[in-house]
UniProtKB/TrEMBL annotation:
GO terms for biological process: transmembrane transport. It is a multi-pass membrane protein. It is found in: Membrane. It comes from the Bacteria. The keyword Membrane applies. InterPro entries: SLC26A/SulP_dom, SLC26A/SulP_fam, STAS_dom. GO terms for cellular component: membrane. The chain crosses the membrane at residues 12-32, 38-55, 62-80, 86-103, 115-133, 168-187, 259-281, 301-320, 341-370, 390-421. Pfam families: Sulfate_transp (PF00916). It comes from Sporocytophaga myxococcoides. This is STAS domain-containing protein. Keywords: Membrane, Transmembrane, Transmembrane helix.
Length: 534
């Protein structure tokens, strides 16, 4: 438990509460879209929060059932013939992920360019906003009871659903959404509300939205939001009914080749989505910490093994819940574990209260999260970084929104690699690893051209520099430094070196550097703008 920091205890607990309120309908909706029992989504959410949260080295990532796996699960259940056989595939997928972790396959995440990750985050923000607009106005016929899934095979599409919602909107839901957004914006903009750390705006918005609908009911108003537009948590009538919601894998199908194919598919997709989300989570982390991705694969694998054994869906690290965690003040893994604990406790004790929460106020919370991810300032920032950063970023945004997460990121990655290879056809990077002891002076000499392909080696070197050392980063012979590497060095100056009391000196960069000993903040981008744009 050494990773827990009591400094953030209160904010982590409150962030966990907000993430729980968002995760609850997500877990139910993804289970519904997957053609699986609703309770299987809850099981996956609890394990993703408590078990994966405990085993993971990520301080802010939140795991749970993912929308990206719904189509795979839906098809797999039909192919394999039963949900219990799918559970066997989930267990095997977890074992494969653990093996990938021990094989150090997680290091592949170091080669995802930041412009692609930023594009993925912005695209997720756009998708969040678009998918929540129908819920915000009380019209969700294309995904009734679901909260984050686009049915591309029905006559209803994402955009036609938004158009239809204008004609079939519900005034009560619109009022709840507007009130929720006003509360959330107020907590973001008004200084006296910002100081109320013990009461996050998202929680206030949920409480206010629930009370408004209860007032509608009490007064017999025509603005009442009906049950299909509220959280819909299954309520068992007895303990035996509750226990009956758990399921076990059908071990007799272990020799079925289709089971192994489904397991390999789940393991591959879940691992890639997890690595993408972990890389994105590290960028969202205000404290700029690095996550051991190999450990993350092991944690996700153990989580999927347990989930499959007791009747849960496969899980990944999920950027929607992770973003909500960061925006709500979560700073350590306690927030993730708290969200899973709240989810388990609420299912056991107060499902009837949770079923009073309108989806409209939760949609308002998610719309604000989506706006923060796809904020226009993000697009301006990428534009200012030059065309080699901006074009892959925009392509990724468009591709993810138009297709799906994996295809979109793949397209963005291909475009990014094209520009990097075009601009760095004669790339050479020479780096000599040595063992160093505390108190020594360590020299790091950058090559003539440094691209994001060198990010992994530099990152590992900086992470393993011993405490109380002196480091000289020499760029005297360097004419090009990739934006990702510059950001990595800046984060090390601002956070990593401070935590380990490392004295850092920058030599030979385009302009003379001075390190402020009190903050260790150095404006790298400004002083190397020519290098990045060249």
């Amino acid at each position: 438990m050494r990773n827990f920091n009591s400094t953030y205890l209160k904010s982590d607990i409150l962030a966990g509460l907000v993430v729980f309120l968002i995760a609850l309908p997500l877990c139910l909706g993804i289970a519904l879209a997957s053609g699986a029992p609703l309770f299987s989504g809850i099981i996956s959410g609890v394990i993703g929060g408590v078990v994966v949260g405990f085993l993971s080295k990520s301080q802010i990532s939140v795991a749970g059932p993912a929308a990206g796996l719904t189509a795979i699960i839906l098809t797999a259940i039909a192919t394999l013939g039963s949900f219990e056989t799918l559970l066997l595939a989930v267990v095997l997928a977890g074992l494969m992920q653990v093996a990938l972790g021990f094989a150090k396959a997680g290091s592949i995440s170091n080669y995802f360019p930041s412009n692609v990750i930023e594009g993925m985050l912005a695209a997720i923000g756009v998708i969040i906003i678009l998918t929540q607009l129908p819920h915000a106005v009380g019209y969700d016929i294309a995904n009734e009871g679901d909260f984050f899934y686009i049915d591309k095979e029905s006559k209803h599409t994402l955009f036609t659903n938004i158009i239809d919602s204008v004609n079939f909107s519900h005034p009560g839901a619109i009022i709840v959404t507007i009130v929720s957004l006003v509360i959330l914006i107020s907590f973001n903009k008004l200084s006296f509300l910002k100081k109320i750390k013990f009461l996050p705006g998202a929680l206030v918005a949920v409480i206010a939205g629930t009370i408004i609908n209860e007032v509608f009911k009490a007064t017999g108003s025509g603005l009442i939001i009906s049950q299909e537009h509220l959280v819909n948590l299954p309520i068992p009538e007895s303990m035996s009914d509750f226990i009956g919601q758990f399921a076990t894998p059908d071990i007799s199908q272990i020799m079925n080749i289709d089971v192994w194919i489904v397991a390999a598919t789940i393991a591959t997709v879940a691992s890639i989505e997890t690595l993408l989300c972990i890389e994105a989570a590290d960028k969202l982390d205000p404290l700029k910490r690095f996550t051991n991705t190999n450990t993350e694969l092991k944690a996700q694998g153990f989580g999927n093994i347990l989930s499959g054994l007791i009747g849960g869906l496969p899980m990944t690290s999920v950027i929607v819940r992770t973003s909500a965690n960061v925006n709500s003040g979560g700073r350590t893994k306690l927030a993730t574990i708290a969200h899973g604990t709240f989810l388990m406790t609420a299912v056991l004790t107060i499902p009837f209260i949770l079923n009073k929460i309108p989806l409209a106020c939760l949609a308002g919370v998610l719309i604000m999260i989506g706006y923060k991810l796809a904020n226009p300032s993000v697009f301006k920032h990428m534009w200012d970084n030059g065309k080699f950063q901006f074009i892959p970023f925009v392509v990724t945004v468009i591709a993810v929104v138009a297709t799906d997460l994996l295809k979109g990121v793949g397209i963005g990655l291909a475009v990014s690699i094209f520009f990097i290879l075009k601009g760095n056809i004669k790339l050479a990077y020479f780096f000599k690893k040595e063992e160093h002891q505390e108190g020594e002076v360590i020299h790091i000499e950058l090559a003539q051209e440094v691209s994001f392909l060198n990010k992994a080696a530099i990152k590992q070197t900086l992470v393993h520099i011993p405490a109380n050392s002196s480091v000289i980063i020499d760029a005297s012979h360097t004419v090009y430094i990739d934006h990702d590497v510059l950001q990595l060095i800046k984060d090390f100056l601002e956070f990593g070196s401070k935590d380990k009391k490392i004295n850092v000196q920058l030599v030979g960069f385009r302009k003379e550097y001075k390190i402020n000993n009190s903050t260790r903040v150095t404006s790298i981008e400004a002083s190397t703008e020519e290098a990045v744009n060249s």
